Each structure stands twice: as C-alpha cells, then as structure tokens.
UniProtKB/TrEMBL annotation:
CDD domains: SIRT1
Organism per entry: Castor canadensis (American beaver)
Protein's gene: Sirt3
Name the UniProt record assigns to this protein: NAD-dependent protein deacetylase
Role of this protein: NAD-dependent protein deacetylase.
Catalytic activity annotation: N(6)-acetyl-L-lysyl-[protein] + NAD(+) + H2O = 2''-O-acetyl-ADP-D-ribose + nicotinamide + L-lysyl-[protein]
Segments forming domain Deacetylase sirtuin-type: 40-302
Entries under InterPro entries matching the protein: DHS-like_NAD/FAD-binding_dom (IPR029035), NAD-dep_sirtuin_deacylases (IPR050134), Sirtuin (IPR003000), Sirtuin_cat_small_dom_sf (IPR026591), Sirtuin_class_I (IPR017328), Ssirtuin_cat_dom (IPR026590)
Residues holding NAD(+): 68-72, 78-80, 150-153, 242-243, 266-268
EC number: 2.3.1.286
Cofactor comment text: Binds 1 zinc ion per subunit.
Amino acid sequence: MVLWCRRALASLWQWGPGGVRRPISLSVGASGLFGSGGSHEKEKLSLQDIAELIRSRACQKVLVMVGAGISTPSGIPDFRSPGSGLYNNLQQYHIPYPEAIFELEFFFHNPKPFFKLAKELYPGNYKPNVAHYFLRLLYDKGLLLRLYTQNIDGLERVSGIHPSKLVEAHGTFASATCTVCRRSFPGEDCWADVMADRVPCCPVCNGVVKPDIVFFGEPLPQRFFLHMADFPLADLLLVLGTSLEVEPFASLSEAVRSTVPRLLINRDLVGPFAWHPRSRDVAQLGDLVRSVETLVGLLGWTEELQALVQRETGKLDGQDR
Ligand code: APR
C-alpha cells in the first residue's frame, strides 16, 4: 500500500499555471449542519439519528464512499479480507507480489495475469446486491449528492444510478485505451478477447488495449476532482465496505466539514474512523448486508427496497435469457 499511497499522493498535486506543482487541499469547513460544536454539542449520534436525518430530509446532500466490501455479497472477492481477499489468492497468476497485477511496469512485461483477473471481474458476470440498491434508493429520492466508488465492477451503474452521480475513482471497464496509439474504445470491444483468454489488441496499431482501470502510478480520472466541490457541500457522509487504505481516495473521508455526521458501515473500524474519530461519527460494524438492512428498516424503506431489488433483478435475469 505504501507504493500506491506514495504514487497516488503524487496525483493529488495539480499542475498549476506555468507548470508549477502545488498540492490540492482537501477542504474541511469550520461549521456546518449542527453549529460549530463546542459545549452545546449533542452527545454521540446513533444509527437511529442518522436514519432520522435522512428520513426527515434534514440531510439532502448525502455523499457516499464505497469499496470492494459492497460487492462481496454479489460474489466478487474484495482485496484484503484475510483468506478470501483477492490479494491472498493471486498465486495462480504467478506474479511477484499482489499489487503487481495493477502495475503498468508488470502489465507491459506480461498483461496476461491482469486479463485473467479481468475475465473474472468483467461486468455482466455479477449482479448488484441490496447495498447497491440502497444507494439507488438514495439516488431515486434525490438525496444522493455523489457516489465515489473504488470498485471496477460497474455494479453501481448496473443498479441504475446515473453516471453523472458516480465517480469511479479507480476507473472502469466501460471504456479502454490502446497503450500505444492512445485510441479509445468502448469496453465491450475487449470483451470477446478477454473471455477467450486473448490479449485485446488495437485494430489500428496492434498495441495492447487496456481497460480504463487506474493502475498504480496512473493519474485518477478527471471526475475524481469533483470532490473539491462536493465534499464542502455535503451534509452527511456514508462510507461502506472499504478498508480506507488507498490514497488519495481514503483522505476524502476527512474532507467533509468537521460538523458533518459520518456513518461507517463495515466489518471493522477502519481509517480515520479508527485513528482520528470525530464527535459525530457513527460506526455500524459487522456484516454489511445486515447493517444496510438495519439502516433501511430504521428509514422505513424495507418494502420499497425489496420491491426495487425484485424488479431490477427480474430485469437483469430477463437480459440473461
Ligand atoms: N460485510 C462487512 N464488511 C465487509 C464485507 C462484508 N460482507 N466484505 C468485505 N468487507 C470489508 C472488509 O473487512 C474490508 O474492511 O470491506 C473492506 C474491503 O477492503 P479492501 O479489500 O481493502 O477493498 P477496498 O477498500 O475497496 O480497496 C481499495 O485497493 O488495491 C486497491 O484498487 C484497489 O480499489 C481497490 C483499493
């Protein structure tokens, strides 16, 4: 992770006028939703309080940050869970160390391990789960300011959340780029090759075509910089299914104003929720689906969510036929 952090932190520097590199400030405002804190500060918030803020629409600019933990219920392994995490199961790819599978230097040396992994993760093999459809409900109800995801499985799009509300911070399979002539292609143009264990090649220059997944050392998508406008605006932050180990994404969790409530839904306490907690943090730990269903119950959205899951899953099953 140090490798990724060091390189990714470099991407937090922007080229200013005249090519001068300057750091981007992840802004944190002074006061916000509940006054400026201090002696009148409400005692610790509960999950019930967070649900009430959403249900009553006291919070209407909800920012969400997610990681691989929201897709494990769909059958996609996350990266770091002991035993089941992807980084514990890469032996078959014969790579020098786990993160190499997302490193350009190794990719140019041997792209096959990445494409074997891509074959497993390619959109179309998995379906969204209740966690994705909870976020879709936030979107449908006009409460979702933006969803920042580290995931490359595309399940947020499949769940029906409009791409304008998404920041796919670590890229996507939806598009691909030739590593030689830099021509861009729709992601589905690579699908047949990837499924047939062939390395996709550019029809023009025969260079290797790589899905637009962000590799270590590559700059994050331009849309990532929407955070500079989004996070100072947010009045509630939800963080689901991530270890918050990878920068610069993890630092976003501290970019909301200091008085904005933050809810972590995860197996365990991670990142700033563990080592730099704030007075209005709430952590709902344990199984992610159970935690989401508890929150949805407190919101009074259980039936609505069940109907949405049934309807959308039926549509996807219909497409499979
Ligand atoms: N219930 C609750 N928590 C879960 C569940 C579950 N069913 N499944 C996984 N989790 C939690 C794990 O305990 C872990 O804290 O989700 C988190 C997933 O963390 P990671 O595996 O590190 O995944 P993520 O945070 O998305 O990784 C970030 O690392 O290598 C890079 O580019 C890669 O985007 C990825 C980034």
